[in-house]
Amino acid sequence: MDRRSAQRDETGRHIPLHGPEGFAGMRRAGRIAAETLDFITPHVRPGVSTAELDRLCESFMREHGAVPATIGYKGYGHASCISVNHVVTHGIPVEDKVLKNGDILNIDVTPLLDGWHGDTSRMYIAGAPSVLARRLVATTYEAMMAGIAAVKPGATLGDIGHAIETVARRERFSIVEEFCGHGVGRVFHDAPQVLHYGQPGTGIVLEPGMIFTIEPMLNAGRAGVKVLADGWTAVTRDRSLSAQFEHSMGVTSDGVEIFTLSPRGFTQPPYPANA
Amino acid sequence: MVRLARFTPEVFVDAAIALVAEGGPSAATIAAIARRAGAPTGSVYHRFESRAAVLAAAWLAVHGDFSTRVIPPLETGDAVGAAMSIVDWARDEPIASRFLLLNEIEDLLDGAPPEILRARIAAQQEALDAAFRRALRALDQPVGMAEDQAAARLRFLVFDGPLAVLRPHLLAGRAIPPYADDLIHELHGGTARRRPAVERVA
Fold first, then answer.
1. Is A23 helix (H, G, I), strand (E, B) or coil?
2. Cis peptide, bond prior to residue A16, ω within 30 of zero
3. Contact B42, B25 (CB under 8 A)
4. pLDDT tens-digit profile of B59-89?
5. Are B3 and A189 an interchain contact pair (Cβ–Cβ within 8 Å)?
6. Which chain B residues are closer than 8 Å to A12 by Cβ?
7. Chain B hits for A195, Cβ within 8 Å
8. DSSP summary character for residue A215
9. pLDDT digits 0-9 by tens, A41-82
10. pTM (two decimals)
11. What is the pLDDT of residue B152?
């Protein structure tokens, strides 16, 4: 039985503090999640539909004993979210969304394995990207890793948000504020909520055993987003490009453990040609 | 998979209270409230339909807390106790007391709050007024004093006098000094005597 922190997040919920069993469960689920993203890498190319990529992700997860946690989650019907170009997040895979040369996209998967949710996403590029797209993707990865570097006992969620914000602002990209990272474990979306902006030294103090995602979304244009009529797809209001990376991690006694690192060492595009 | 960032209404209410306490009503814009709460500006509107609605909720929260401290002594006809409860509350709640005691509700609510909040504000104020009226009936008044003068006298002893004592310290952001208690007792002197219980019942 996991303990709970005395601290509550902005939604009023106490934050679970996971023990060794939780960390072990998250390692297994996180590895399947990362392997799924490794596996899909060579399939991302101009001419493939996002629905095909989704089917491949689903097959891989099921073949490895996991269930896509997104299927049935609040009515969502797919094994992944695939967000192309100006789609910020929660892009729904469809047959008629066929990748074009230069498209950038985020693939977000959450395999559920033995009751644990491994939640991760990476950016991919179909063909040759624009200079702006490449810079946006690289900055978003750097921002996520800066946020992760701030994770340690005694640091605050505000420290994480500030680290991400600092990288984004340096490159004059905007940060999406409407969506956030979240606690994860046996519950898909748990406390705390992890904002990707903030003031140093503010907010919840990190404690060993907290498990959450960091998943900043950076826009090349303005920060404003809107959710389309399907209730899921969030796009930039100005139709500017958007990028996102995500890792699941746990706070350890002296730092952070990332559960969703690529076994093949993939971090950000361009990925190895022989992937 | 990201989740929609959510914030409890209390997060915004607390931010609004702190902003008003620090900079007056004009400091509590929607953008400032969101920034203080660490939330996107749009998220305020997920919870409140307007700035007036946030400020009304803030007033209800603070006034409600204030009332729970002041009403019990008023109900027992204890004018000194009621006055001292305000001083004690200001000591315990420096931010809330700056919010409530240094601002008129009309200044806080720039624009009409939703009808349901207006009704709650009226009901909450009426609860305090009713307790005040009961205290007025329970206390001896100087012989020959008109009813309106007696009410003004008790209002001064319980509310306006203590506020005059507290106001310089609240404005300066200072702790309320111990001598504030002495001033309240000096103000009241021996004037706030209760009627015998049998007469109160009658």
1. helix
2. no
3. no
4. 999 999 999 999 999 999 999 999 999 999 9
5. yes
6. 8, 10
7. 5, 38
8. -
9. 999 999 999 999 999 999 999 999 999 999 999 999 999 999
10. 0.74
11. 94
The kind and range of the H/E element at A80 are strand A80-84
| pLDDT surpasses 50 at A100 | yes
Measured CB to CB, residues of chain A less than 8 Å from chain B are 10-12, 70, 73, 81, 89-90, 108, 110, 119, 121, 158, 161, 177-182, 188-189, 193, 195, 197-199, 202-203, 213, 215, 217, 244, 246
Q: CA separation (Å) from B74 to A83, A102, B64, B71, B158?
A: 62, 74, 15, 5, 9
Omega into A192 within 30° of 0, i.e. cis?
Answer: yes
Residue pLDDT, tens place only, B165-192 = 999 999 999 999 999 999 999 998 855 4
| Six token digits for residue A75 | 């009515």
ipTM above 0.85, yes or no: no
- Strand-pair category, A217-219 with A211-214: unpaired
Nearest to A12 among B5, B8, B42 (CB): B8
Going by C-alpha positions, the residue among A217, A252, A253, A211 that lies closest to residue A234 is A217
User: What is the C-alpha separation between B131 and A132, in angstroms, rounded?
Assistant: 67
Using CA coordinates, name the residue in chain B closest to A82: B1
The residue of chain B with its CA nearest to that of A231 is B4
Q: How far is CA A111 from CA A30, A65, A265, B190, in A?
A: 8, 9, 20, 75
* Strand intervals (E) in chain B: 3-4
* Identity of residue A82: I
| Helix, strand, or coil (residue B57) | helix
Nearest CA among A83, A161, A78, A169 for reference residue A122: A83
A115 within 8 A of A25, measured Cβ to Cβ: yes
Q: Round to whole Å and give the CA distance between A137 and B191.
A: 76
Overall average pLDDT of the A164-186 stretch: 96
A178 neighbourhood in chain B, CB within 8 Å: 4-5, 40, 42-43
Identify the three-state secondary structure at position A70.
coil
**Token pair for B181:** 């208690």
Query: Residue A22 above 70 pLDDT?
Result: yes
Residue B194 pLDDT > 70, yes or no?
no
